[in-house]
UniProtKB/TrEMBL annotation:
Pfam families: AP_endonuc_2 (PF01261)
Species: Granulicella cerasi
Superkingdom as given in the UniProt entry: Bacteria
Family matches, as Gene3D superfamilies: Divalent-metal-dependent TIM barrel enzymes
Protein name as annotated: Sugar phosphate isomerase/epimerase family protein
GO MF term (any one): isomerase activity
Length: 305
């Protein structure tokens, strides 16, 4: 548990009550919802519901109609909703359990670059989460070397367009399924080899907790570009995340560590939930959004205490 981070830092977390931070997001909430959390909804439903709750949004490319992306982005910019980041349709250099095609890493990186171009109007100054993917035969060396080379190119490409690349270590259960990097120490080693100022880190509370590495968020320093939040109970499959505050992760301690790094950016709730009897995706989505907001707000209040 983090100690001594409370009183001295608490005053700059959030003002009392429902007031918002004075920095990056002005009158908008730091709490964002990743669109995968409300997977059954459309982009338009997501935006309407998140705005109603005073929340920002992490976009998912899969929620857009490929034939109407310019029109949908123009509409989105009129909605005055804070955008934290975009989850691309292809977000790993090598294949992952969820996105197997294309298999060629070069083609996958080319698709990431195309996504950055397609969504450039809303992505300037925002984050583009990504991960290595995996070689399903267990050839970690191949994935590591290929990813180092790929991220040098991707970080350059994104920097020229004002977009930040936020590498995310995944949970240990996804090793050699969707990643070869499952804790922050390994992620920092990768960043050191790539050696590019535009490549930073996504700290996901769920993934770090699963890897017994929650405290490693403190290692991120000024390379922390994005924060994802979900809660954990022993999962029944790969997509069994819990609403913040409804599991076992000490989220207030996690947020204190994040705050101690001077991170003041979005706190993005990202929930996957399918194939279980009480799937969040089969519940009232408006209620799920409200619970997510309450859970993060409660953790922030505890972190400020």
């Amino acid at each position: 548990m983090l100690v001594g981070a409370g009183a001295a830092l608490a005053a700059t977390w959030l003002p009392e009550g429902n007031a918002q931070p004075a920095s990056d997001h002005d009158s908008r909430s730091r709490i964002h919802i990743s669109e995968i959390t409300t997977k059954p909804w459309t982009l338009e439903q997501d935006v309407a519901a998140y705005k109603q709750q005073g929340l920002g949004i992490e976009l998912w490319e899969s929620k857009f109609d490929p034939a109407k992306i310019p029109q949908q982005l123009a509409w989105l910019e009129e909605q005055n909703i804070s955008v934290s980041s975009l989850q691309p349709a292809v977000l790993t250099v090598f294949p992952s359990m969820s996105v197997l095609e294309p298999k060629d890493p070069a083609e996958r990186v080319a698709r990431m670059c195309r996504t950055i171009d397609l969504f450039g109007s809303v992505l300037k100054g925002k984050c583009f989460p990504t991960n290595t993917g995996a070689d399903f035969t267990g050839n970690e060396y191949r994935v590591w070397r290929g990813s180092v080379d790929a991220y040098k190119r991707l970080a350059d490409y994104a920097a020229e367009r004002g977009v930040r690349v936020a590498f995310e270590p995944l949970g240990a259960s996804l090793m050699n399924r969707s990643t070869t990097v499952f804790n922050m120490e390994q992620a920092l080693e990768l960043l050191h080899e790539v050696n590019h100022p535009n490549l930073g880190l996504t700290a996901d509370a769920y993934n770090l907790w699963e890897s017994n590495a929650l405290e490693q968020v403190s290692l991120c320093g000024d390379k922390l570009f994005l924060v994802h939040i979900a809660d954990w109970k022993r999962p029944r499959n790969f997509h069994d995340r819990r609403v913040p505050g409804e599991g076992q992760i000490p989220l207030a301690d996690f947020l204190r560590r994040v705050h101690a790094l001077h991170y003041r950016g979005p706190l993005v709730v990202e929930l996957f939930s399918e194939g279980v009897p009480d799937s969040l995706w089969s519940q009232d989505m408006n209620d799920v959004v409200k619970r997510c907001k309450r859970g993060v707000e409660a953790a922030l209040q505890q972190a400020r205490a």
